[in-house]
UniProtKB/TrEMBL annotation:
Keyword tRNA-binding among UniProt keywords: no
Species: Scylla paramamosain
Residues bound to ATP: 71
Family annotation (InterPro entries): CDK, Kinase-like_dom_sf, Prot_kinase_dom, Protein_kinase_ATP_BS, Ser/Thr_kinase_AS, STKc_CDK10
Family: Belongs to the protein kinase superfamily. CMGC Ser/Thr protein kinase family. CDC2/CDKX subfamily.
CDD domains: STKc_CDK10
Family annotation (PANTHER family): CELL DIVISION PROTEIN KINASE, CYCLIN-DEPENDENT KINASE 10
Protein name in UniProt: Protein kinase domain-containing protein
PROSITE patterns in UniProt: PROTEIN_KINASE_ATP, PROTEIN_KINASE_DOM, PROTEIN_KINASE_ST
Domain Protein kinase: 42-331
Keywords, in A-Z order: ATP-binding, Kinase, Nucleotide-binding, Serine/threonine-protein kinase, Transferase
Length: 412
């Protein structure tokens, strides 16, 4: 009886029995729903970055031997389960299937309720690390290849009415096959109809659109397109285009580059409803009537200047869409965008930093390989004094910002 009981219990665990042989059928693990794998099945190799809402590791799947990116979700102040930001990120990534959007493979868990990990495809580089370590900037053909892929990814997201809200170079990943992947959907949102109010404290300061700086209540896909324009300028200049130190400083940098919206008073002709933005009521903009894009990009063709101007329209409704950017004549003139497979390859600096602590000699030998010394120096110079990866998007600056000046307006 005991043996029969053991057999019946084992058959119940299997769940399926073959009609032909009467023997239990083992169900493939990928076909099992409602069950998460244990994170212990992954071997952590090194830490590669920190996203908006989690730390990212390079790891190896011990079952398939595949290298993956393992993102641990932040659960610091959560008492009632998973944070809503994490749920949004999982749902949005599961809804996306595009070559230029990072792929979410599965969700794995640890022993405690706070241990939740996202398993994503591993990309060898991120553009922020590359720009920090490259001596020479990307060629224009490479810049066009990168931006074409960024616009394709954004066009896909915006067609699905998803706004990323944190597009920046550290969230653009690059594979060894030259494919760009948009990552870190911790701040992403689906657009509703009618549009519901969203917090303006999103997007890293250097890539933040003017409507966010002026505390708009509703956001559109235009915030992503402004950030894409900042990235295009950064790749061409090999340095950040608008590296503001505070929100007010960021507004001044935008005005210095693009000119004033109105001479001392709001100009609703250029930007309708501009005077109704919360932060404008008691704010006077400095006078600067000139557009200085040509001065900042003297070697850029007229079609490239035109593309930047459309991406940097003050009125978000007039700003270029991702689909329109893909049709720009800038990408159809010489030098043409290269094939992604022809993109140069680079040392994996995020992994080399980890290896240097363990075996400095081995890393030094790999970095000094022929051909790499022309693009990378032995000691890389950091062109970006401000930390790119802001774990808390609502972190306040040490200088006085818009929120501090206009807190009374928000309460009103």
């Amino acid at each position: 009886m005991a043996e029969r009981g053991e057999k019946s219990s084992s058959s119940k665990k299997t769940g399926l029995v073959s009609f032909l042989t009467g023997k239990p059928i083992e169900i493939p693990e990928k076909h099992l729903f409602g069950k998460c794998r244990f994170v212990g099945e992954f071997e952590k190799l090194n830490r590669i970055g920190e996203g908006t809402y989690g730390v990212v590791y390079r790891a190896r799947d011990t079952k398939s031997n595949e290298i993956v990116a393992l993102k641990k979700m932040r659960m610091e102040k959560e008492k009632d389960g998973m944070p809503i930001s994490g749920l949004r990120e999982i749902m949005l990534l599961q809804a996306c299937n595009h070559p230029n959007i990072v792929c979410l493979k599965e969700v794995v868990v640890g022993r405690s309720l706070e241990s939740i990990f996202l398993v994503m495809e591993y990309c060898e580089q991120d553009l922020a690390s590359l720009l920090d370590n490259m001596q020479k900037p990307f060629l224009e053909t490479h810049v066009k290849c990168i931006m074409m892929q960024v616009f394709k990814g954004l066009a896909y997201l915006h067609k699905k009415e998803i706004v990323h809200r944190d597009v920046k170079v550290s969230n653009l990943l690059l594979t060894n096959m030259g494919t760009i992947k948009i990552a870190d959907f911790g701040l992403a949102r689906e657009l509703g109809h009618p549009m519901s109010p969203m917090t303006p404290q999103v997007v890293t300061l250097w890539y933040r659109a003017p409507e966010l700086l002026f505390q708009t209540k509703t956001q559109t896909s235009g915030v992503d397109m402004w950030a894409a324009g900042c990235i295009l300028g950064e790749l061409l200049l090999h340095k950040p285009l608008l590296p503001g130190k505070s929100e007010i400083d960021q507004i001044n940098l935008i005005i210095d580059l693009l000119g004033i919206i109105g001479t001392g008073t709001p100009n609703d002709n250029i930007w309708p409803e501009f005077s109704q933005l919360p932060a404008i009521e008691n704010f006077t903009l400095k006078s600067q009537p000139y557009n200085n894009l040509k001065t900042r990009f003297p070697g850029l063709s007229p079609s490239g200047q035109r593309l930047l101007n459309f991406l940097f329209m003050y009125d978000p409704k007039c700003r270029a869409t991702a689909a329109e950017c893909l049709e720009s004549s800038y990408f159809k003139e010489h030098p043409l965008p290269c094939d992604p497979r022809m993109m140069p390859t680079f040392p994996q600096h995020r992994n080399l930093k980890q290896s240097q602590g363990q075996a400095q000699g081995t890393v030094a030998a790999s970095v000094s390989a022929p051909g790499l010394s022309q693009m990378f120096s032995g000691a890389a110079t950091n062109l970006y004094p401000q930390d790119r990866v802001l774990a808390d998007p609502t972190a306040t600056s040490s200088k006085l910002g818009i929120n501090e000046l206009f807190g009374s307006l928000a309460r009103r």
